[in-house]
Amino acid sequence: MGELAELFAPERIAVIGATEREGSVGRAIMDNLVTDFDGEVVPVNPNYNEVLGLPCVPEVADADADLAVVVVPPHIAVDAVREAGEAGVGSAVVITAGFGETGSEGANRERELTDVAAEYDLDLVGPNSLGIMSTPNGMNATFGPENAEPGSMSFMSQSGAFITAVLDWANDEGIGFKDVVSLGNKAVLDESDFVREWGDDPDTDVVIGYLEGIEHGREFIDAAREVTGDTPIVLVKSGRTDAGAQAASSHTGTIAGSEQAYEAGLDQAGVIRAESVQELFDAAQMLANQPLPDGDDVAVITNAGGPGVMSTDAVGESGLSMASFSEETLAAFEEKLPEEGNIYNPVDIVGDADIDRFRDALDVALGDGNVGMALVLSCPTAVLDYEDLAEATVEMREKHGKPVAACFMGGERVAPAAEILGEAGIPNYFDPARAVGALDALRRYRGISEREYEAPTAFDVDRERAREVLESVRGRDDNRLGVEAMGLLDAYGIETPAGAIVDSPTAAEEAAADVDGDVVMKIVSPDILHKSDIGGVKVGVADEDVYDAYEDLVTRARNYQPDATILGVQVQEMVDLDSGVETIVGVNRDPQFGPLLMFGLGGIFVEILEDTTFRVAPVSEREATEMTEEIKTAPLLRGARGRDPVDRGGIVETIQRLSQLVTDFPAILELDVNPLVATSDGVKAVDVRLTVDPDEL
Length: 697
Ligand code: ADP
Ligand code: MG
Description:
single chain, alpha/beta, Rossmann fold, 4 domains, 7-stranded mixed beta sheet, 7-stranded antiparallel beta sheet, 21% strand, flat, binds adenosine-5'-diphosphate, binds magnesium ion
């Protein structure tokens, strides 16, 4: 056990606000604690001498406790915690509600609580918590109606009500827990603390959670990464539907919303994200009870053709694949199975299969080196007893040490067999897709457990020069910078086309003369965000047309907005778009996770295709590489339709350099390089736009 030992394994618990009053929270906690807790329970309440037969002390200082459970009304709760701190109690669970969840008075009270906890170095759960449980010592310090059964999963939830519902169901299903925590308002301890704690806890095999938000995203990523190599973390994070709203916003600067941050952040943290409560428990059960497979290939053994096909579809839709059997396996099936069966995967051992045929087939399949795991699929028949089949399944799982899921289809007759399977940690589902989903969790976790996290590359950059460029935002009303800030990219080693910003037609001609071939000319104005929307970008201007082009650009800008501030015109070297691909690298700042990087196909495509991918910065080289590989249009970068592949290494490096830039400067609230043109020779940042908070500089 880790740093929170006192919280989960206290010897004496003081219940501040304990009472016998029927229907009260203080009573419910006392009832729960006196039932099973191995240690001492000390009621604290100046109004009583005794609570439920236990001697009651007037002050927490008299309790000599290591954990205080606080159930007094909100206006005295902070004082109660302070007294506990003064008395040398190391941990507290604040059940009392009426804090940050209620408005400004409550929010102030919660700040006070946090301060008191810091002053006394208290490990504090809550406030507004249902409480905590730990099964090894029988501690149920909650006011819920159910106690947890022992098990190896530790469970945290931001909703206390959800805990009561889960326990009610889990107890029926025979699903047990090591620790259970209702996080409440997370004034002190939050998900990162419990992930760390349970990662160090030999009695916790799987960490599961229901979260509505993660306050300190980066801290959570770092904490989870430390743990997920050995202990899987499976989470449901609600609030997914924001994704739809976010996806609908097609403006490049705002594409990165917080759902993307969660998706990226949880993935980077090595968390298995479940989309539903069912998926959460299916995955967690599998991870808690079954060995990790060596490979992702599934053998399906069935006595029924139809469900065999269903399972094949489900495997195809998951990250798993159907195993191809070795020659020896096929020969063995040939010998043992009737002619009308199917020796290829899914293996159809036919409706008249008895228990011996089932066992043999499973034995042969699991013995094949190409098979990582198996699904036993059965429909009821007159010649097969489900309990026998359950025993054979357990026996073969033990013999081969490979994960197995079961799909014994049916109603009444399934229950006793499912119990046998359940005791061996083999889940049984009616629906083959669900069984496959559970097996797939093993594959997902295996990938995570094998990950090696590398540190982000630290490039040699000119930070001072970058700061100077950012400083230029001072005095601007909208805090925005455009191509006049291209020096920022240069300072961070990102290549930009040759060019200059000029303020007269003749200066434009001179600048164009310095550039080989035709040029691109762009209006430079803080009031014009999307230059080409107003005809403010001219591509392929010949030297003799530069003078007129300058005047035309300025006129267009004036027509668009008569009082627009015009900083001049950028004269820029042409990049070869015909052989290149326009990509975008963007950054947005997420309130929870900090800088969020976006990569996708750039130019006009970014808004139409929404083919983008996200990572929380700073990113490692591997993460930046993954970004370039996982967009749908990645084949374009690899050179589709006879085109040369583009310099993907250059894109990867640019993503990393921008990651370093926004990590170095929290003042950069938003940044878009669109397009970053990638050709076979290299990459060039052709356009930039950013928003800077001068107060952060
Ligand atoms: P904005 O995004 O404000 O409209 P950009 O500078 O991104 O302005 O230019 C718009 C488009 O013009 C780019 O997506 C690209 O297709 C083209 N373009 C811009 N600069 C160049 C350049 N130097 N070489 C070739 N094409 C360019
Ligand atoms: Mg652009």
